[in-house]
Amino acid sequence: MSELFTDNAAQAGFDPARLQRAYDWLARWTKEDKIPAAALCVGGRGKIVRPRFFGRQDLHQDRPLRPDALFLVASITKPVTATAVMLLVERGYIRLEDRVAEFVPRFAQHGKEAVQIRHLLTHTSGLPDMLPNNEQLRAAHRPLSDFIEEICRTPLLFPPGTKVSYQSMGIAMLAEIVHQVSGMTLREFLQKEIFGPLGMHDTSLGWQPEKRDRIARIRLTPEQEKTDWNWNSPYWLGFGAPWGGLITSPGDFARFCLMMLESSKGASGRAIPESQLGTVRLLSPATVRAMTSNQLAAMPHLPEEDRRCRPWGLGWRLNWPASSANFGDLLGPRTYGHWGATGTLCWIDPDADAFLVLFTTQPQEPEGRFLSLVSNCVAAALLPH
If you ran DSSP here, which 8-state letter would residue 98 be given? Predict the structure, then answer.
């Protein structure tokens, strides 16, 4: 039986010498303390290149980053939450055009009656990114259920389907739909239906307390350090935000990315043994196609510029033309992925049969360009296939 992980980058479709440039930059930036810690994992062609780790585990100690380090990946959580919803779609429990209020009746307040599940998945719902009293709720260490209640009471910023506005609170409502339909919390559903089958044993929505020492600490601003609800706090690490609370390792998340690549191929995909990657075709090819195609193109009330130039799939951000952003400059037109405010990035390019997982502990603002620079090096290392 062949191993899923390899040290031979060429087996996964990468030129080793060109890929080394990405590793060299991460080694240099962590040595110069521009980034406290980083881990890079790439893969494709049914293989995962063994992750490489750089920098230090803690901000105020000189301990090297552990080879089993875990990262809070922030908004990379969103497409994982979307995957849970799409499993319910393909199993016949819900439709994208179903209204949110059908599953959460108390949501139907202040003009939100017409909001559909599709709107939540494409950032077109009209909900805010964060609640007006977001900081107060976090300072009081309130649970997710309190956030859901506040979202239900919150008016829309605009009618659904008329504008694109990034909305973490829409992702929170997806978690409540999963809860109402499946009878499980999102955390439970993800563990049972996604992480367990894929062998992602170090991945969870919210921390596994026994693994807390493995979580790499994120660099904070002085203002953030004063709070007890920042990214490094026990409250936030345990909260399990559906929009930003995923804790995982680069190798684990590489399994998720490889699943997306292989699931899109249907019967023609490589038959990776279950002992290596669990149920590799977790999603049907039809589901992956829907998640990774431009959903905005068929929304007539959106501005034409958004529909054509700033496309979104279902939970996934698509590669925007003429926009370096964090994906960089060299990826193909069918690339999709996401990034997170804690300094994390993933992308999947089905045409190149490749993916990237890059986790750091340097928040992307104001240094998000680190992510795109590494992305360019990795994209340049792709071999023709």
Answer: S
